[in-house]
Amino acid sequence: MSNGKIFFMAVGGAQEVGASCYFLKLGENNLLLDCGCGSTRGIRFAPKFSALLDTPYLQDFHQVSHVFLSHAHLDHSAALPDFLELNERAAVYMTDLTREILSAQLEERFDKIQCNISSVAFLQKIPLPNMRISFHQAGHIPGAMMTLINFRGKNILYTGDYSTFPTRLVDAAMLPDVKIDILILCGLHARHPNYRRFGDSDSALKKILRRIRFALNHGRGVYCQVTQISKGVELITLINEFLPQAEIFIDERVMKIVRRFENVHIPIMREQNHPLQFFPRSPGVVLSTYPPPVHSSLEIVNGDFSLHDDFAATVDFVRRVNPKICVVVHSPPDKLFHAETTLEQVLINDPDSRTSFIFPNTGEPFEL
Fold it and tell me: Are 154 and 181 in contact (CB under 8 A)?
């Protein structure tokens, strides 16, 4: 096997959302990009790590030397302790803030793997055998990073989850100023322009805010459930900004993340924000990661929203990067949505695009 070849395989999170984990073989170097868990109907599923040993590339999990964690959302990070049980020697890289958030989410499991983890900063460069790696702001949530790998003159960019628009907690993604040969794209909306499960971030957040305002104006309290803890922090800042008189009662899991953000000088809490110790008698907003109580008199509001680029923004992003190869992952299959137009179809008709696309299935190896 030539030391100059590049091989890619999705271990999870290929044409699906959840359990994002991507194997990259660069000559003798074996890397993992992300290591997450998914959930279907409440049943947890992890990457198919065993698929790595079904390839000619690895005979032992210990041959994976480095893991790069893009951000702290659990579908990209929660299986890290599982993998480190298989390979306790792997070196793990993530930003300080990702480390803070993940520590609060995984708790005791994270404490056991601290010795494997190195914190990195945006624009920091680390040399590894026959390659150079640097990290770049991805937007999406605080601490999220893109990973840029230069291997034998080729630039490979793994986006992780990214956003080209600023949120209330973080600025937009900042692309590295180099020509990208291979783009590994987490493209939630890459193949379905009419996918409206979450809607775009701004309109979804405004809808949540309108429902909260309506309930409070009519003397009713609100129970707002969030699926990702860091999104709860985003909603706290939104309510504080646009409903400054509203009292917010925050459950202990979200409070842990709030404290981690404030540890790194991102202020979240205001005077009208309180840890949730009991259900308030006066109208206020309960913000929780737990399902609402049965027979509650509170107005139930779904606090889920997307922090991903929509279809048009995804097209513009890939057009701007203009890689030779774009490997699209973290994207549900288009057959579920009957899309008439996809990212590939748009750019194949663009005379300025040089990009060919790969939509891998989990466990399917490719030479890039």
Answer: yes
Q: Residue 201: what pLDDT?
A: 59
The pTM of the full predicted model, rounded to 2 decimals, is 0.91
Q: How many CA atoms lie within 13 A of 241 on its CB side?
A: 14
Half-sphere exposure of 310 (CA within 13 A, CB side): 14
Q: Residue 296 and residue 222: Cα distance in Å, rounded?
A: 10
Amino acid at 56: P
**pLDDT (0 to 100) of residue 129:** 82
Query: What is the per-residue pLDDT for 2?
Result: 54
CATH of range 201-302; options 3.40.50, 3.30.1180, 2.60.120, 3.30.70: 3.40.50
Tally of CB atoms within 10 A around 208 = 21
- Taking only the tens place, the pLDDT of each residue in 275-319 is 998 776 678 999 998 888 887 788 999 988 878 888 889 999 999
Ranges of CATH 3.40.50 domains, the chain:
201-302
- 217 contacts 228 by C-beta, under 8 angstroms: no
Low-confidence ranges of the chain (pLDDT < 50): 1, 196-199, 337
How far apart are alpha carbons 298 and 368 in whole angstroms? 53
Q: Which residues contact 267 (CB under 8 A, 6 or more apart)?
A: none
Tell me where in the chain the CATH 3.60.15.10 domain(s) lie.
Answer: 6-193+308-367
User: Do the Cβ atoms of 202 and 313 come closer than 8 Å?
Assistant: no
The H or E element that residue 258 is part of is helix 252-263
Specify the CATH number of the domain 6-193+308-367.
3.60.15.10
Pull the structure tokens for residue 108: 């005791």
Q: What is the pLDDT of residue 335?
A: 55
